[in-house]
Specification:
250 residues; Rossmann fold; alpha/beta; 2 domains; seven-stranded parallel sheet; globular; Arc Repressor Mutant, subunit A; three-stranded antiparallel sheet; 15 strands; 40% helix
Length: 250
């Protein structure tokens, strides 16, 4: 059983990095028969952790999320920690779906009475480990690509609550075009959270700056501020400040 778990961990780790794998390559790397590899892939597919293909397997949507978590991981952790530092005991916050925003939950250890409204299943998974948080997961339709809940149910839940701060993410942002995303339903959730929060903070590593997604979400002046990393550069940071928002470099 331990050997099987080790093989499964190896398979999932490789898929998170490479996206797809062949049975023959796995058989060679793991030192087991192709029959054993296929059995492992069948079990993992049954648990929704990958999709089998002819001669191999490819990453599921969840594995794609894991891959995104690896990108700029140190920067994302620092950004999430800086965002969590804004949260005090008894605060109320909203956390929008995203790999950086979800990481905020891990840095709220030691806070008490914090009420969290989120549409992020990643944030929900992390919050289960912190019983001091008072968590409300929105309803809505599950969107596997972003590990989020969207649509009418999510928007209806969000509209019922008022919070001090909303922490949101983005696929790209610029001083001229503001926040953008590739996902229209996700944009609706961000706008809804922004409308119910006293402050809205964008959490985005510097690789997102200068990129523009398909859907415009919010103009920058509507944000309280952005928390990013040193890769943003002073010139870009000043352009953001000129738009009237705070810039925190974590």
């Amino acid at each position: 059983m331990a050997e099987k778990r080790t093989r499964e961990a190896y398979i999932l780790d490789r898929l998170a990095r490479d996206g797809s794998l062949s049975v023959s390559a796995l058989s060679r790397d793991l030192g087991v028969s192709e029959v054993t590899v296929r059995a492992n892939l069948r079990d993992l597919e049954g648990r929704g952790l990958l999709s089998r293909t002819h001669g191999g397997a490819q990453a599921s949507s969840f594995q794609s999320v894991l891959e995104r978590q690896r990108h700029h991981a140190p920067e994302k952790e620092r950004i999430a920690e800086a965002a969590a530092a804004l949260v005090s005991d008894g605060d109320s916050i909203m956390i929008e779906a995203g790999t950086t925003t979800a990481a905020v939950i891990r840095h709220l250890t030691g806070r008490s009475g914090v009420q969290v409204v989120t549409n992020s299943t990643l944030a929900f998974a992390a919050a289960r480990l912190n019983p001091a948080l008072r968590l409300l997961l929105t309803g809505g339709q599950f969107h596997a690509e972003s590990e989020s809940l969207v649509g009418y149910g999510a928007l209806r839940t969000i509209a019922d609550f008022n919070v001090r701060r909303a922490f949101i993410g983005t696929d790209g942002f610029t001083a001229e075009r503001g926040l953008t995303t590739q996902f229209a339903d996700g944009a609706d959730v961000i706008r809804a959270m922004h409308a119910r929060a006293e402050e809205t903070w964008l959490l985005a590593d510097s690789s997102k700056y200068g990129r523009a997604g398909f859907v415009t979400v919010l103009p920058l002046p509507e944000l309280t501020g952005v928390i990013t990393d040193a890769g943003i550069g002073e010139e870009s940071a000043e352009a953001l400040r000129s738009a009237g928002i705070q810039v925190v470099v974590a």
